[in-house]
Amino acid sequence: MPKRRQSVDSSRRNFLKGATLAGAATLAAPAATQAQVAAPKADIKKALPPGPRQIAVETQPPAKDPVNQSSSGGDFMVDVIKTLDIDYLAMNCASSFRGLHEAVLNYGKNTKPEILTCPHEEIAVHMGQGYAKIEGKPLAMICHGVVGLQHATMAMYNAWCDRVPVIVMGGNIMEANKRAPGAEWVHSGVDIGAVCRDFTKWDDQPTTLQHFAESMVRAYKIATTPPMGPVFLALDAELQENPIPDIESLRIPKLAKVIPPQGDAGALAEAAKLLVAAENPVIIADRVARTPAGMANLVALAEALQCPVIDNVGRMNFPSRHPLNQSFRRGPLLGQADVILAIEVNDLWGTLNNFSDRIVRTSRPAIKPTAKTITLGVRDLYLKSNYQDFGRYQDADLAIAGDGEASLPALTEAVKRLTDDSRKSAFAERGKKLAAAHVAMVDRAKSDATIGWDASPITTARMCAEVYAQIKDEDWSLVGNTIRNSWPHKLWDMNKPYSWNGVSGGAGVGYNAPASLGAALANKRHGRLTVTFNGDGDLMFVPNTLWTAAHHRIPILYIVHNNRAYHQEYMYLQAMAARHGRGIENTKIGTTITDPNVDYATVARGFGVHGEGPIVDPKDLGPALSRAIAAVKSGQPALVDVVTDPR
Ligand SMILES: Cc1ncc(C[n+]2csc(CCOP(=O)(O)OP(=O)(O)O)c2C)c(N)n1
Ligand SMILES: [Mg+2]
User: Fold this and answer.
1) Which residue ranges have their beta carbon within 6 Å of ligand 1?
2) 134 pLDDT more than 60
3) What CATH number does the domain containing 485 carry?
4) Which H or E run contains 561?
């Protein structure tokens, strides 16, 4: 009899022997217990005893711990990341990526990428979002595959809606037999990317190091090709931790950055024809500027046409003090427009229609029915089905697919070619009128800002004006604003590509504090003074962002717009109660952040950040700001808690 067979038989014999003994024991048991034991007996018979290989595995001594392992898959991953010019790896630490974490520190010497310690995964992703919009390149973040990724998702959604690249990775233990009992099971998944697939541009789960290299380079390429977006890679823990099996066979692919597509030349010429012939053209810009060239390209087009620009401020598209900036005259301008050019406008329907939901949900077009609409951008090239970030369908007469920034020079050239002397003088006339309207628009804003100037709590307009008075001669960069009526865009001279870096994208509250910090990290290298206006409600989501600011010595000035409420929702609730005729007395419940009032300056100091406030009297604001700005200029983060009225 072959040996294998023998051993199966003998183990079965042993098993049966055990079963017989158990059976004997049941003889003495009461009848009810006998019945209970008898039932599973049939099942037990079905279960085969372990085979010889299983026995061998179970009786073998544990494999020698490779304490002298001199390299790891994580080292190779670091090599790959280094080729991609990724400066930072933001994370909240976790065992599922301890292999890569250790390799970054000890093999990669914690440079390119350098680890950013974040007390919440949402902070890490949002930092990436803010950073990319200043630096023009993504950073990477890594999280604990299942649970960390769930925390990261809200920020990934904001970045996705904002079309901003962030390289997100998550540790996972793919082989079930390698997972330790307990946490490694609840923290592993078959397809962990499923949780964020609806709002990532691409994701993968590499199974070998070569696969990782190719997917990492591909991830970077896809994330940074317009329309951009976050990408996700699940990283197997064993792949990171184990030795590199066949180092000679590994190859890191070359990254070729994709040249963004220009709109079709014929279509751009057609657009130019419409724009040159128009009497009242309007340009609407939203996410135009991807690089510093974006603003210059848009200025060139607007000047060639002497055409008003309405900036939806999704990026730093157009200087706020340019005479053609007419952003706060959108009502009359859209109402009389005959040709509208919408460049990289995210929500075109929302821009060209007036919508109200204060009584019942109603809307009416903001433009004439005869107005011709041209769209230029990559919006139509990429969308997904589930999340409805694409907005309502808006008619267009000419829809040009192409990257806005890249297509602008060709459009401007076409405009110039078509502009004869008579159009040139008509444009000059229009330009003069628009310049006067711009001055009136700014004067109006300045005069509006004086309303309630000495009021306490402090008006948001005064808060913005006081901050500007103290930073205007610095190389400043405003990277966040939760103030609803756009005071900085009305009152400040924003003229640099980094004067502003856009909005959250998904309107997911909790963006502002960490995204501003990411932007400040990018600005730090350039010696810029970073400022952000941060809603109190927003700061309450991830106030621990302040700790990351202090820990990594990131200079940033947080001005807390502290209206002690989720004020937008407070106003919605009041409108709802009024509509239902039930009075607004109860609407503070669930919408205000009082009882207790939060002392954000103390919170800041607790996290190692310079704290000022709460500032209630406007005359205390100037001195508090000077002290905070001095701290920021010395390299520290600082926070000024300004108790504002809710406007
Ligand atoms: C993640 C998330 N939760 C809730 C909301 C609903 N929401 C929209 S604005 C807002 C208030 C935010 O408060 P704050 O930052 O203080 O701004 P304020 O409205 O007071 O100016 C809330 C809760 C949201 N947009 N996102
Ligand atoms: Mg608030």
Assistant:
1) 482, 507-510, 535-538, 563, 565-569
2) yes
3) 3.40.50.970
4) strand 556-562
289 or 2: which carries more pLDDT confidence? 289
- Regarding whether 107 and 80 lie in a shared domain, the answer is yes
Verify cis geometry, omega within 30 degrees of 0, for the bond prior to 61. no
- Tell how far the Cα of 512 is from the centroid of ligand 2, in angstroms: 12
The predicted-structure confidence for 103-122, as pLDDT tens digits, reads as follows 999 999 999 999 999 999 99
Q: What is the number of structural domains in the chain?
A: 4
Who surrounds ion ligand 2 at CB < 5 A?
A: 535-537, 563, 565, 567
**Which residue's alpha carbon is at the smallest distance from atom 21 of ligand 1?**
567
User: Is 243 in the same domain as 381?
Assistant: no
Ligand 2 mean position, distance from CA 646 (Å): 8
Residue nearest to ligand 1 atom 23, measured at CA: 566
Of 391, 406, 435, the one marking the end of a domain is: 435
Least Cα distance to 306 among 330, 293, 325 occurs for 325
Ligand 1 atom nearest to 537, measured from its CA: 16
pLDDT of residue 53: 61
Q: Is residue 64 in some structural domain?
A: no
Instruction: Tell me which residue range forms the domain holding 171.
Output: 73-249
- Check residue 46 and give its pLDDT: 60
Of the candidate ranges 15-24, 444-453, 480-489, the one whose mean pLDDT is the lowest: 15-24
Nearest atom, ligand 1, residue 483 CA: 21
Ligand 1 center–CA 570 separation, angstroms = 10
Q: Is residue 581 part of a domain?
A: yes
Residue 410, judged by CB atoms within 10 A of its CB (0-12, 13-18, 19+), counts as middle
The confidence score (pLDDT) of residue 66 equals 57
Distance 327 CA to ligand 1 centre (A): 24
Question: What pLDDT score was predicted for residue 61?
Answer: 59
Give the span between the Cα atoms of 202 and 166, in whole angstroms: 11
Strand ranges across the sheet with 556-562 = 476-481, 529-535, 556-562, 637-643, 610-615
445 assigned to some structural domain: no
Note whether residue 588 is domain-resident: yes
Query: What pLDDT score does 10 carry?
Result: 39
CATH code of the domain in which 428 resides: 3.40.50.1220
Please tell me the number of the ligand nearest to residue 543's CA: 1
Q: Are residues 120 and 221 in the same domain?
A: yes
CA of 644 to the centre of ligand 2 (A): 9
Strands 339-343 and 529-535, sheet pairing: unpaired
Length of the chain: 647
Using the CB atoms, write b or e for 450-488: b if 16+ within 10 Å.
Answer: eebeeeebbbbbbbbbbbbebbeeeebbbbbbbbeebbb
Kindly state whether residues 284 and 388 are assigned to the same domain: yes
Going by C-alpha positions, the residue among 529, 523, 437, 526 that lies closest to residue 475 is: 529
Q: Alpha carbon of 406 to those of 77, 132, 227, 264, 460: distances in Å? A: 33, 18, 12, 11, 37
Ligand 1 pocket, mutate which of 122, 562, 569 (most atoms under 8 A from CB):
569
Instruction: Band the pLDDT of 69: cuts 50, 70, 90.
Output: confident
Q: What is the pLDDT of residue 27?
A: 35
Q: How far is the CA of 569 from the centre of ligand 1 (A)?
A: 7
Q: Are 237 and 313 within one domain?
A: no
Instruction: State the pLDDT at residue 17.
Output: 36
Separation of CA 647 and ligand 1 centre (Å): 15
**What mean pLDDT do residues 554-582 have?**
95
Q: Do 127 and 156 sit in the same domain of this protein?
A: yes
Which of 568, 598, 643, 645 to mutate to test ligand 1, by most ligand atoms within 8 A of the CB atom?
568
470 and 422 assigned to the same domain:
no
Are 264 and 222 in contact by the 8 Å Cβ rule? The answer is no
Domain end (from 435, 461, 485): 435
Are 283 and 428 in the same domain?
Answer: yes
